[in-house]
From TrEMBL:
<feature type="domain" description="Terminase large subunit gp17-like C-terminal">
    <location>
        <begin position="260"/>
        <end position="403"/>
    </location>
</feature>
<feature type="domain" description="Phage terminase large subunit N-terminal">
    <location>
        <begin position="24"/>
        <end position="176"/>
    </location>
</feature>
<dbReference type="InterPro" id="IPR035412">
    <property type="entry name" value="Terminase_L_N"/>
</dbReference>
<dbReference type="Pfam" id="PF04466">
    <property type="entry name" value="Terminase_3"/>
</dbReference>
<dbReference type="InterPro" id="IPR027417">
    <property type="entry name" value="P-loop_NTPase"/>
</dbReference>
<protein>
    <submittedName>
        <fullName>PBSX family phage terminase large subunit</fullName>
    </submittedName>
</protein>
<dbReference type="Pfam" id="PF17289">
    <property type="entry name" value="Terminase_6C"/>
</dbReference>
<keyword id="KW-1188">Viral release from host cell</keyword>
<dbReference type="InterPro" id="IPR035421">
    <property type="entry name" value="Terminase_6C"/>
</dbReference>
Length: 417
């Protein structure tokens, strides 16, 4: 028998909030808690109620919002809640049309060109998916297009896995303060928020997700992705979540140099440290781009093979590895996978904090961009303080080594025609 669509108790509360008096609503909480599903459902309800209405679903990157919502969540919502609803797609404008002429637009806010294509229209609903990835300036600009005249009350909706308390979404929806001035909002009742967590969506989750997948996270990751908690930036931490989020990009420009940083693990047991493997590049614009995190917990031959694969994938200029513990053996293991590997040994002569500070300074200046999201690496970055600086943040160490070499003066890389 075909399963009928039944909202969870949390989704029913969310629907009441979304249709309530507040014009701006944020649903936040843990991973796989049903936030995106119920927001897409609510947008379809609005679109069907007002013929010819337009509704934008925006994220930092256009391809991400299309993959996660256009090709995944939206078909699931239609199949379960609106069976038989005919949708037509315009591949030129990247929009979906409903039978009554209403439109769903999907776009990214990471480049002016892409944003302008979406923001040339007016909308009755704007939904900011994963708003923790977005800067407040981009959101404010997009909200100027919440101006379509229909029978609907124009609304802006947001969702996210909570970032740090320094993020604008916390100040706006939880503290109800202007993110720029810090002053209390003039109309605080216009802003509402609701916590949804995966435990409330258990019936829609795969077996073992709560007990195995989420339970295996670090404490800070568990608080964010299971409990939906807003995290304090750790006192003395060199990086904050907001610092990383505001400079995230979808793609890197032409790169002058690409380096792979490696922080080899001393042992390879199940409880051993990981081998940090992070690839980064320097652009012609003078900015730096973190391209990949291939860190792993494997035997030497295994992590060396990963380094080789990343070297070939990105056509890197150099591999730099810390050899304090492994000595020449690190180079031997790497060359067993790639004989002509351009390799450089580095030895840690200063403390971790001293090595990391120049790199953190570039992040503060907005000169380092993560090309995508690297959850484990970013967790290590935002958890790294003088008090924790004696540990072994393997991914972070690999990043720092790669960035340190990239910061050195170098001639532009030669790319054969």
């Amino acid at each position: 028998m075909k399963r009928a669509f039944v909202k969870t108790a949390a989704q029913q509360r969310a629907i009441r909030l979304l249709s309530g008096p507040s014009r701006f609503v944020m649903l936040y909480g843990g991973s796989r808690s049903g936030k995106t599903f119920i927001l897409v459902y609510a947008i379809l309800v609005r679109a069907l109620r007002a013929a010819g209405s337009r509704h934008a679903i925006l994220r930092l990157h256009a391809n991400t919002v299309r993959q996660s919502i256009r090709f995944d969540t939206l078909p699931k919502v239609v199949k379960l809640a609106f069976p038989g609803l005919g949708l037509s797609e315009s591949k030129v404008d990247q929009l979906i049309r409903l039978p009554n002429g209403s439109e769903l637009w999907f776009g990214g806010l990471d480049t002016e060109e892409r944003a302008d294509k979406i923001l040339g229209k007016e909308f009755a609903t704007i939904y900011f998916n994963e708003c923790s990835e977005l800067g407040f300036e981009a959101v404010s600009t997009a909200l100027t297009r919440l101006a379509q005249r229909t029978a609907l009350k124009n609304r802006a909706w947001f969702d996210c896995n909570p970032a740090g308390k320094s993020h604008w979404s916390y100040r706006l929806f939880i503290e109800r303060r202007d993110p720029v001035s810090g002053l209390p909002l003039s109309f605080p009742d216009n802003y509402a928020s609701m916590l949804l967590n995966p435990a409330e969506n258990r019936e829609n989750l795969p077996e073992g997700y709560l007990e195995e997948t989420l339970a295996g996270l670090t404490e800070r990751q568990r608080l964010r992705f299971q409990e939906g908690a807003w995290l304090d930036d750790l006192s003395g931490a060199l990086w904050s979540t907001a610092m990383i989020e505001r400079s995230r990009v979808e793609a890197a420009p032409s790169l002058e140099r690409i380096v792979i940083g490696v922080d080899p693990a001393v042992t390879s047991g199940k409880d051993s440290d990981e081998t940090g493997i992070v690839t980064a590049g320097r652009g012609a614009d003078g900015h730096y781009y973190v391209l990949a995190d291939a860190s792993c917990r494997e035997r030497p031959a295994g992590w060396a093979a990963r380094v080789r694969d990343e070297y070939r994938r990105f056509r890197a200029d150099r591999v730099v590895a810390e050899v304090n513990n492994g000595g020449d053996l690190v180079e031997t293991v790497l060359r067993s996978q790639e004989l002509d590997l351009p390799f450089r040994q580095v030895r840690a002569m200063r403390g971790k904090i001293a090595r990391a500070e120049p790199v953190a300074a570039l992040y503060e200046q907005g000169k380092v961009h993560h090309v995508g999201c690297f959850r484990e690496l970013e967790e290590q970055m935002t958890s790294f303080t003088p008090q924790t600086g004696t540990g072994s943040p393997d991914r972070l160490d690999a990043l720092v080594w790669a960035m340190t070499v990239l910061m050195e003066p170098a001639s532009p890389r030669f790319i054969p025609a």
